[in-house]
Amino acid sequence: MKDLSTDRRRFIKQASMGTIAASIAACTPNTEVLQSELTEDPKSSPIPLVISTWPHIADNQIALLAVQEGRLLDGIEKGINNVENNPKDQSVGLGGRPDRSGIVTLDACIMDRKHRAGSVCYLKDIKNPISVARLVMEETPHVILAGDGALQFALDKGFKKENLLTDQSKSEYLEWLKTAEYKPQINVELHDTIGMLAIDERGDISGGCSTSGLGYKMQGRVGDSPIIGAGLFVDNEIGAATATGMGELVLTTLGSFLTVEFMRQGMTPTEACKAAVMRTIEKNKETYKDMQVGYIALDKFGRFGGYSIQPGFQYTVTYQDHNKVFDAQSYLPK
Ligand code: GLY
């Protein structure tokens, strides 16, 4: 475990975050912090570290290996690729649930320590949207490519088209068509998105987010996951956050950006996630009880946390040879 007591001074100097550090130090973590001291004590936070929404242990381990080798962005990309490539995962990449027309469309974004960002939305026939998003970030002057343009870009970069609708997702879709009732489901199959954040040994932070979006969404619907500030936000001087759940609620509060801004004001990651969830609830008083939104956050000291509206949201933290799945605190009781 790396002791951050000396590095903390280095971060503060390098990142010119004296006022932020002071406010974090002054912050009394006396809110409902149910996780271990590890998460709240800057001196004992273990870095490098990877955190992701939902129980994604194998994916975090893949990510951590690259991060430990100093390949922070590769870690985010490869960790998320592992979920995208899994046909049994019906919320992300290959095997994702289709829209109401039976078409699988994928959304993803990535953001790095240099404040660069890349995103694709409404991408068809390519199973690794996070990799395409990374190339948008690294090789184009743009941040977001959508639909046919995103597909053409991916093909130009050598990605191969494939049918993303697996037999399992197709048969569930055909079953759904019998009633075609559209109702958001809370904590669908334990997750609906992979959001992943990582901090390396230097204290640099990056993140990514990938999803097939809401199952049986309207054709053309894009959620929060490819939108910088909504599904993901990274500010390397402060920290990062990513979202899961009902994208429409995350979009209208720019929840990941908001979470990072709360950390900028001195909140711990858990406090910041909770404050962002409370904003969502305040703005959606009529509907929030039937919806799930969850955030995870990671700060510059390697502290982490999560919070959600509904119980049942979990997140996974991986460092050294440890994998820990946390039950996030929630606004509504179990
Ligand atoms: N959070 C994923 C979505 O709403 O598309």
Topology of helices and strands:
Elements: H1 4-14, H2 18-26, E1 49-53, H3 57-68, H4 72-84, E2 106-111, E3 117-123, H5 129-139, E4 144-146, H6 147-156, H7 167-177, E5 194-199, E6 205-211, E7 232-235, E8 239-245, H8 247-251, H9 255-264, H10 269-283, E9 293-299, E10 304-308, E11 314-319, E12 322-327, E13 329-330
Parallel strand pairs: 3-4, 10-13
Antiparallel strand pairs: 1-5, 1-11, 2-3, 2-6, 5-6, 7-8, 8-9, 9-10, 11-12
Helix pairs in contact: 3-4, 4-5, 9-10
This protein binds glycine.
Q: List low-confidence stretches.
A: 1-37
Which strand order does the major sheet show? Answer: 4-3-2-6-5-1-11-12
Shape: globular
Q: Which class best fits the helix and strand makeup?
A: alpha+beta
Ends apart, CA distance between termini: 34 Å
Whole-number tally of structural domains: 1
Q: Taking Cα atoms only, what radius of gyration do you get, to the nearest Å?
A: 19 Å
For CATH, the homologous superfamily is named as: (Glycosyl)asparaginase
Q: H/E element string?
A: HHEHHEEHEHHEEEEHHHEEEEE
Number of helices: 10
CATH topology (level 3) name = Glutamine Phosphoribosylpyrophosphate, subunit 1, domain 1
The CATH top-level class label: Alpha Beta
- How much of the sequence lies in strands comes to 15-25%
